[in-house]
Design brief:
500 residues, mainly alpha, Ammonium transporter fold, 17 helices, 66% helix
Length: 500
């Protein structure tokens, strides 16, 4: 009973305190009101900047996911080489995106390419920032970091299909061209306000722009490079080459899943006034469905539950929903992920039977799933979710997906956007790899491949105790074992053997 008088008193006190503030606001000069508005805008910009930077850190951490995934699915004699490749790819991507990538993708220019803002010249921004940043109040520097991390992801995808047999120098050469020219040009078509953007093509976080481009590079590289030694018998029958550590590979998948929260969620480019958690929900629904789809597909095709296929199912679901995460309802997100997961084992087997060696299944998880996810907008996209971009930003009539009563219009735009990306990126990647092959060389020698890239390319082993005798590496029997402490029974070690 005493709570009511107390509540009334508190309410009355609050009203009395609010009256002077309200009166001051009414009497405040216009300059003060403008100053308050500027402070609010500054605060909103700070909030958006923090969110974009945090999301960028999530995306950068995905490199650790790729490192574990690729190491786990490679041979143990190449584990150190995989880590070296991850480091140099990230370094090259950052450098080239600074030199030319951001300018080509988001600099002011024409419908095909950006032409300003080289070396991220501060005097050229934000005037050089493209349409993708028009409604973003985050700092241009934070937007640069975010997009730079995306470029690095796309490049990382390329070499997943080229493990265990590629020259270290080839990674650098291809990375310079891909991150500095190929990737940003396609990004400009949509995110930079180019011709696809003006046609109403949608790709919220990069199923096509990031993942399909990476997969196209992987396809060109894997074909030109050729399969690993012993992957195919003389009659063309594939020979399974399992990765050396499934636990490492699945740990990588989980890190990628975690990083995707920034990948998709951060693509809002704003934090205030936007429910980016909605995007995280669709993302997780699709990932879960991808695992289920790949598990079912594995059972149907192999009569067993292949753990690596389950991991690729998660990635396939995440890749597929990346384009449509802001444009489809929850049930549709689940369908998008489920179909992607079901496709994974089918595509993996198809690729293998075509004589293409893809150790990571990148062509399935990033390529086919990327195409499917981009087209899915034209099937399941809702007008309510799409109109803020299609109508308010692009200025086209309202659209919806085919199954949502919108006809074929959006599906057609999504289709020729994917086709253009495949033609452009696939061709340029193939030309680049052929140029590398006939100049500095793309593939290591057979002797080096047999010895392992760790020792042949880097002069060391990722797991030295597995290949050479390391003094003190193995435990010596003694009292701690509760057994024989006779030194004569101890294991012996010697100077490390000469590398093969």
């Amino acid at each position: 009973m005493r709570s009511r008088p107390l509540a009334a008193a508190a309410c009355g006190l609050g009203t009395l305190l609010a009256l002077p503030v309200a009166a001051a606001a009414q009497d405040a000069p216009a300059a003060t009101t403008d100053s308050l508005a500027a402070q609010v805008a500054s605060l909103a910009s700070a909030i958006d900047t923090v969110w974009v930077v945090v999301a960028a850190c999530f995306v950068l951490f995905m490199q650790a996911g790729f490192a574990l995934l690729e190491t786990g699915l490679s041979r143990s004699k190449n584990a150190g080489a995989v880590m070296a490749k991850i480091l140099i790819n990230l370094a090259v991507a950052i450098t080239m995106f600074w030199i030319s990538g951001f300018a080509l993708a988001f600099g002011s220019g024409n419908d095909f390419i950006g032409t300003s803002g080289w070396f991220f010249n501060a005097t050229g921004f934000p005037a050089a920032a493209g349409t993708a940043f028009a409604s973003a109040s985050a700092s241009v520097s934070s937007l640069f970091i975010f997009q730079m991390a995306f470029c690095a992801i796309s490049l990382a995808i390329v070499f997943g299909s080229m493990l265990d047999r590629t020259k270290f120098a080839a990674y650098i050469a291809f990375g310079v061209v891909f991150a500095g020219v190929i990737y940003p040009m396609v990004a400009h078509w949509t995110w930079g306000g180019g011709w696809l953007f003006k046609d109403g093509f949608l790709d919220y976080a990069g199923s096509s722009i990031v993942h399909l481009q990476g997969a196209l590079g992987a396809l060109a590289g894997a074909i030109i490079l050729g399969p690993r030694l012993g992957k195919f018998r003389k009659n063309g029958e594939p020979v399974p080459i399992p990765g050396h550590s499934i636990p490492l590979a699945i740990a990588g998948v989980l890190i990628l899943w975690f990083g995707w929260m920034g990948f998709n969620g951060g693509s809002s480019l704003v934090a205030h006034g936007v429910d980016f958690a909605d995007v995280l929900l669709t993302t997780n629904f699709a990932a879960a469905a991808g695992v289920m789809g790949a598990t079912l597909g594995s059972l149907l095709m192999f009569r067993t539950i292949d753990v690596s296929q389950m991991g690729n199912g998660a990635i396939g679901g995440l890749v597929a929903i990346t384009a449509s995460c802001a444009f489809v309802d929850y049930w549709a997100a689940f369908v998008v992920g489920l179909v992607a997961g079901l496709l994974i084992p089918v595509v993996v087997v198809f690729v293998e039977r075509r004589g293409i060696d893809d150790p990571l299944g990148a062509l399935a998880a990033h390529g086919v799933a990327g195409v499917w996810g981009t087209l899915a907008i034209g099937l399941f996209g809702t007008a309510t979710r799409m109109d803020p971009v299609i109508v308010d930003v692009v200025g086209l009539p309202s659209r919806a997906g085919l199954f949502m009563g919108g006809g074929f219009s959006q599906l057609w735009v999504q289709f020729y956007g994917v086709a253009a990306t495949m033609a452009f990126t696939g061709t340029l990647c193939a030309v680049t790899f052929l140029a590398i092959k006939h100049t500095i060389g793309l593939r290591v020698s057979e002797d080096h491949e047999a010895s392992g890239l760790d020792i042949s390319e880097h002069g060391m082993f990722g797991y030295p105790e597995s290949f050479i005798e390391v003094p003190g590496a193995q435990p010596t029997p003694g009292p701690a074992w509760g057994g024989d402490a006779d030194p004569s029974h101890a294991m012996t070690t010697s100077t490390p053997a000469t590398a093969p």
